[in-house]
Every structure is written in structure tokens, then in C-alpha cells.
Amino acid sequence: MPQKIVNVTIITEFFLMGFPDDWMLQRLYAALFFLIYLTALMGNLLIVTLTIIDRNLQAPMYFFLKNLSLIDMCYISVTVPKSIINSLSNVHSISYLGCASQVFLVIFFAGTEYALLIVMSYDRYAAICHPLHYETVMNRDSCVQMVTASWFSGCVYGSIHVAGTFSVNFCGPNSVLQFFCDIPSLLTLSCSGDILEYAFIIASCCFAFVCFALMVVSYVYIFSAVLRIPSTQGRFKTFSTCMPHLCVVTLFLSSGFIAYLGSASKSPSSLNLFMSVLYSLLPPTLNPVIYSLRNKDMKVALEKLFRKKMFPRM
């Protein structure tokens, strides 16, 4: 009996085709991305610097914030510089290994940030619900262990997904309809019918939901503790320490959820590009603004730093 021969094209590179073909629009996107990237780097680097040099910013919350800023700097640096270079050079290719590295690093840093946000919610729970035991519970060794666990979990998360995504066969075309390699767009290029990565996605979504439920439970206890404070001013002052974290969590989860609703689209569109920008550029850029504007200690440290730089002899 004749055997059916299946032609499998070995793909060695992908083409990132998220931007329109128009030369002027590509330059405009490159300029906009550069400004956003520079803003994100400066904001996060400023927070890292302040939490290192200022003695009043050595509490566990600022240790976690420093790591959050480091993650955000790395996260936005994985995708944006490559996209800017591609737009300016009009060369949209990325190697197979480069694409796999991008997938791993994006998931690695996103997973680490999510784990760290859960740790930060526990920090707020311990500070508000158990203030007398806070220093014992959130001692330096515990903080280092929790941050290390966050980075490790992100690494495991990224490794699992990059293995699942690139276990499939890509039979062409090799055009990724995004400005970076993301999992939903790559899976649309699969021809093997392998469901391994889909199983990983479902399992990770279930685990992420369980973690989110734990975060919600911690805030239920926090709200209960805040409502028991007799004075209105005391309730507001206590709850205000949670507002930056709540804003960052809302921004991170909502942008990712909205973006992935339409990221598997097989046709490029302005909406698809906007949603990708939403979850890859917005959180790293706005997180420093949220924490610096809502935190009195951060604003005081920032004023001290600028006074020292502008009036060094005072």
C-alpha cells in the first residue's frame, strides 16, 4: 500500500508582523515604544535606588517593591528593544532560539511578578491583621525565602510553558502576528495537533486561580480588621497602605486577562496590537507611578534625593 508522505517544513526563524507595513507608522511605533521603555526604566530604577540608599525604606514592603521593580525592568526589556530595532531596521525576523528565549523570559518574569504580588498581599495581611507579630513573621530571612521562592516559581513556570509550546511542530507560515513571540500566536502556527501546551495552560490557569483566591481571602481578613478600627481616620490610614498593591494587582491581572482574550486572533489588527501593548508595557510603566504617588515614605525619600542632587552642600 502506498504510504502517505507528509511534508514538514523545518522552521529556523519567525517573522514578527504585529506592526503595520507602513514605514511611517513603524517609525511612529518605534518612537512611542522608546519613550515608554525609557519611562519604565527610569521609574523602576529610581525605586530600586531609593529602596537601597534610604534607611527609612528598609521595611519588608520596600524589599518586595525593590524586587518588583527589578522584575518590571527585566520584563519590559525582553520584548521592547527587539521590537524597536525591528521597526527601525525593517527586519522583522527572530531566530527560533531567540523566539523560544523570548517566550521563556516573558512567562518567567510574568510568573515571578504574580508570585511576588501574592507574597506582598501576605505582607499586608501580616502587617494589618497581626501587627504585634509582624516583625517576627516577616523577618529578613523569611522575606528572602519568599522572594527566592517567587523567582524560582517563575523559572519553573517559564520552563514548563516553553517546553510545551516548542514541543509542537510548526509547519508554516512562520509569521507571528505580534511584535514579540507569545504563546497564543505561536500555537496558531502549530500543525501537529499536540495538546500538551493547552494542558499546561489549563493547569496553570487553575493554579493561578487558586493563588488568586488565597489573595482574595487575605484581603477579606484585611477589610475585616480595618472595619474594626474605631476611627474613620485610622481606617483610612491603615487601608491606604494596601491601595498601591491593590492597584498594581488590578492592573496586572486585568491587562493580562483582556489581552489574552484576543491575542489568539489569526488576523493582525490595531485592537490586537493594543491589547499586547496593554499587558506588556503598561504594568511596568505604571507600577512605579502608583507606588511613588500613593506612598508618603517614597515621596519623602524622593524629595531628599533630589535635594541632595540639586543642593549637595546643604
Reconstruct the topology from this structure.
Blueprint: E1 13-16, H1 23-53, H2 60-89, E2 93-95, H3 96-129, H4 134-137, H5 140-165, E3 175-176, H6 183-187, H7 196-227, H8 232-240, H9 243-262, H10 270-294, H11 296-310
Parallel strand pairs: 1-3
Antiparallel strand pairs: 1-2
List keywords for this structure.
314 residues; mainly alpha; Rhopdopsin 7-helix transmembrane proteins; 11 helices; 74% helix; cell membrane
Notes on the structure:
With 314 residues, the chain is an all-alpha fold. It has a single domain (22-310), classed as Rhopdopsin 7-helix transmembrane proteins. Helices cover 74% and strands 3% of the residues. It contains eleven helices and three strands, in the order E-H-H-E-H-H-H-E-H-H-H-H-H-H. It has helices at 23-53, 60-89, 96-129, 134-137, 140-165, 183-187, 196-227, 232-240, 243-262, 270-294, 296-310; strands spanning 13-16, 93-95, 175-176. It has a three-stranded mixed sheet. Helix 3 packs antiparallel against helix 5 (140-165), helix 5 runs antiparallel to helix 7 (196-227) and helix 9 runs antiparallel to helix 10. The model is unreliable at 1-6 (pLDDT under 50).
* CATH topological fold name: Rhopdopsin 7-helix transmembrane proteins
CATH class: Mainly Alpha
> How many beta strands in the DSSP annotation?
3
CATH superfamily: Rhodopsin 7-helix transmembrane proteins
Tell me briefly what this model is:
With 314 residues, this protein is mainly α. Helices cover 74% and strands 3% of the residues.
